[in-house]
Design a protein that fits this description.
The complex is a heterodimer of chains A (276) and B (372).
Chain A lengths: L26 H14 L7 E5 L15 E4 L5 H11 L4 E7 H7 L1 H10 L4 E6 L2 E2 L5 E2 L23 H8 L3 E6 L3 H13 L4 E6 L3 H8 L4 H11 E3 H4 L11 E8 L5 H13 L3
Parallel strand pairs in A: 1-2, 1-3, 3-4, 4-8, 7-8, 9-10
Antiparallel strand pairs in A: 5-6, 7-10
Helix pairs in contact in A: 1-6, 3-4, 4-5
Chain B lengths: L2 H12 L1 E6 L6 H13 L3 E4 L3 H12 L4 E6 L1 H16 L4 E7 L18 H4 L8 E3 L4 H18 L2 E7 H5 L50 E3 L14 H16 L2 H4 L2 E4 L5 E6 H16 L4 E6 L1 E3 L3 H10 L2 E5 L7 H8 L4 E5 L10 H12 L1
Parallel strand pairs in B: 1-2, 1-3, 3-4, 4-6, 5-6, 9-10, 9-12, 12-13
Antiparallel strand pairs in B: 5-11, 8-10
Helix pairs in contact in B: 1-2, 1-6, 3-4, 10-13
Classes of the chains: A alpha/beta (276), B alpha/beta (372).
Amino acid sequence: MNTVEHPLRKYLRPSVGTTGFCPGCGDGTISQCVLRAIDELKMDMDDFVFVSGIGCAAWIISPYFNADVLHTTHGRPIAFATGIKLNLPEKKVMVISGDGDLTAIGGNHLIHAARRNIDLVVICVNNGIYGMTGGQVAPTTPRGARTITTPLGSLENAFDISPMVQAAGASYVARWTAYHPRQLTRSIKRAIQKKGFAFIEVISQCPVQFGAKTGAGSAVEMLKMFKERSVPVKKAVGTKLQETYDSIAVGDFVDTDKPELCEEIAKLKERTSGHI
Amino acid sequence: MMGNVACAEGAIAAGCEFAAGYPITPASEITHTLAKRLPEVGGYFLQTEDEIGAICAAIGASWTGKKVLVPTSGPGISLMLENIGFAVGIETPCVLINVQRGGPTTGAPTMGLQGDMVQPRRGSHGDYEIIALCPSSPQEMFDLTVQAFNLAERYRVPVFVMSDAFVGHMREEVIIPEEDEIELTDRKVPKEGTDLSKIKVFLDEDVAPMPIFGRGFKSHVTSSCHDEHGNRNLIDPTALDNFIRRLRNKILKHRDEIVQVEADYDGCDLALVAYGAVARCAKEAARLARSRGFDVGYLRVITAWPFPDREIRDLSQKVKRILVLENNSGQYYPYVRAEAAGAAEVGFLAPEILGQLHGLDYVVEKIGEVLR
């Protein structure tokens, strides 16, 4: 029997066979989008350092991507990535992690990295729940949703992540869902080429925890919901974006150019020491 | 020169190129100095959003091959502990300065206390070993900071300089040697093009070369239980056993190259054991007691961790009594007493008032009571 190697297989560690993602998880789709973006940009995995935190989405990178990979503690990948990027400014440093990792325990690092406008690509896989640990409420869980720690429904408001990162000062912010792999791939390419803090939020389905606990249903049902509820950002202006999942504003929130930290540091070093 | 400034100059002399920190008394002068000095040598000081960000950025920077410093005080270390364990787990060279202040909790920021002595060794969860050095003077803030970098590079481990507000803010003459007189150690790195599945890059008791980022090694670096090549293994208990033992033995096996004490107790009945700022009192009290006819010596602990077990055992066999002096309620004392058990009697002496150094007359008076 003839076997055909997947065109993106070359980007994965040879030792890796199958992934550990649950059936129906959006992480596989997002992995493909990232690797496809790198492939379409004709870049090499050695052009990157990948950093992940703790949670399901962190496993998109580790151990699968055949590149320099730092798998860090919970909530801290952006802080580690900051130290890497400042000292390897010629490399692209990409963080992929979940909403719990990046906006709950690691929320401070996220807004400050955006404020610094350091040249990182951060992909936040937002499944609205803590998947790996068993379906606990997250800062992104829609108000009213039942989870294992909010069995009577969540009383709290959900973070609207993308506008928050935009307000914190990022150069590029986009949101898509796992229903939009082509648009997402385009945005990842844009983020990689951007000089500055580039953030992409991907609303993704977790049928095993979110679907089962909140009643959102199967992966197919959730993807259909993403399709039906997605609204282009421009048309969604003025509405509470995504707070309740009634509407999901998708597209570019911001795409602008402003001073980037590594470049500013290079200028400073040049002024003070002649080092470049 | 102020101790904290000497520490910053020591870091520069050791080849430090990146430091990260958050403002905290009584350590801030270190960052003030580095913020100006690092760009002059092509480096950078990053003031982070909190101490957690500082230790993480420094670890990330170390993985690019840079020598890194994280200056702080006890509350900062408390925030960093999880990621100090991370640095141990992925074998990251980094130097942490703890200019200890009055605790517990927010305590008294400008007062010196040796209140965090066990924290670096046992503060992060799990079994692990680190190295901790105790400077007694501004000169040693320079010298031991250089040594801390060398040890961190040699053993791929976090190294702590356990200063305090006394030594950090003390002003004394500091002699900075010429550049070529300072011996420096650089970490080993695999040769370009090395296939990491063919060599050990982690968990070598004799310290594996560090597969730093940006060189095309495609390093997989995880603090989760892993093998010698960085492959995660969360299923096999023997892998966990290997992970813990190798990381610990990497330090313990080389303790003879690491551990330093300064001792003068030959022919003495009693020896004072102390470290850091208090060691200055202990040495002077021993001299004073001798001038008053008591046979008193001292042992100054320079390397607090790994514990100088052999040196304390030797001491306990040569003197009848040991008196441990610390500016705390007795943090290091139980370790000394356990090591000397059965050989010498071990007592503990706190200063009259915690947060102040021991008065010399007070110490000599206590020596008199012990020896009478």
